């Protein structure tokens, strides 16, 4: 009889413990589902913000380059020197502004093109001049032929950058063009600092029609032009089949055991032609959530075991007292 009562107490205690564990589990499951949904929404919002910040930074930088080029192009002394193809005068007039802009604004390219599309003066490389650039500088060709300023991304034999090209007029006629260019790498660093996301610029030479230099890492058709973490994006491009599209895409990737949220967006040149894509990666916040969920499930299981022990003892005590009465 005593053994029967003891077994009954254990069974009741086990049933209570199981009910508590199931109740805890149901609550945790509902909590987990709600949290996953909230995390997915937050991830999409965060990656859209990264995408918007990058696009806005590129656009502002290109407009800044064009504003500097237009300001220079409107100088009468510069226009006269370009019309006369007077390199010495152009260099003398431009040295001060170029030195200042290079130091204060990170200007990478600052130069003048003659109306027959030859590079008359490179302030950033004055020893190189007179070369015909019509074959590999489509942005300069477009400005020359349309007589209109051009701004945006351009891929050349030296790489990819943001350019502003202004038309220089003198005496009612076009004297040539002037360009200001910015390196994209500092822009990536600034966006990373503000969003905590790593960013890469990927170029597809077959789309742009121009091959980059041999030093650029290649992964099939994709060239890793620049990034804030070359090793991370090299690992991504080795394992993933990423292709440029006309739409912004948000997804997830696992790279070397780490979970990331990822957004890809099209990279278009000054003419609107698709030439590649940009990729942003950010640590997936769900990794911390998964650890928390695991810990909560362990707590629920331990709570069930503790409940079983406590109720078993309580039933045994209650039965002992009842027998004493």
UniProtKB/TrEMBL annotation:
Gene3D superfamilies: PAS domain (3.30.450.20). Keywords: Membrane, Transmembrane, Transmembrane helix. Pfam families: dCache_3. Coiled coil: none annotated. The chain crosses the membrane at residues 296-319. Residues 54-277 form the Double Cache domain. InterPro entries: dCache_3, Sensor-like_sf. This is Cache domain-containing protein. It comes from Chelatococcus albus. The lineage of its organism: Bacteria, Pseudomonadati, Pseudomonadota, Alphaproteobacteria, Hyphomicrobiales.
């Amino acid at each position: 009889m005593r053994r029967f009562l003891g077994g009954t107490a254990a069974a009741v205690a086990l049933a209570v413990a199981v009910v508590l564990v199931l109740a805890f589990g149901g609550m945790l499951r509902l909590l987990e589902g709600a949290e996953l949904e909230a995390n997915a929404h937050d991830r999409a919002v965060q990656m859209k913000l990264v995408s918007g910040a990058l696009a806005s930074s590129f656009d502002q930088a290109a407009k800044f380059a064009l504003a500097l080029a237009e300001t220079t192009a409107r100088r009468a002394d510069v226009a006269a020197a370009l019309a006369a193809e007077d390199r010495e005068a152009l260099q003398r007039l431009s040295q001060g502004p170029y030195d200042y802009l290079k130091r204060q604004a990170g200007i990478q390219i600052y130069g003048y093109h003659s109306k027959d599309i030859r590079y008359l003066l490179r302030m950033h490389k004055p020893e190189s001049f007179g070369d015909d650039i019509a074959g590999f500088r489509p942005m300069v060709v477009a400005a020359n032929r349309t007589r209109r300023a051009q701004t945006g991304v351009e891929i050349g034999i030296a790489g990819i950058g943001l350019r502003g090209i202004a038309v220089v007029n003198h005496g009612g006629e076009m004297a040539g063009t002037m360009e200001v260019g910015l390196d994209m790498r500092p822009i990536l660093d600034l966006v990373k600092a503000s969003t905590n996301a790593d960013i890469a610029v990927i170029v597809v030479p077959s789309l742009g029609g121009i091959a980059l230099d041999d030093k650029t890492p290649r992964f099939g058709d994709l060239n890793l032009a620049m990034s804030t973490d070359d090793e991370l994006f090299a690992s991504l491009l080795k394992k993933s089949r990423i292709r440029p599209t006309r739409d912004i895409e948000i997804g997830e990737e696992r790279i070397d055991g780490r979970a990331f949220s990822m957004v890809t967006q099209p990279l278009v040149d000054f003419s609107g032609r698709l030439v590649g894509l940009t990729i942003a990666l950010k640590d997936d916040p769900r990794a911390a959530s998964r650890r928390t969920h695991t810990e909560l499930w362990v707590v629920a299981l331990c709570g069930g075991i503790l409940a079983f022990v406590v109720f078993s003892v309580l039933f045994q005590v209650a039965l002992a007292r009842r027998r004493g009465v």
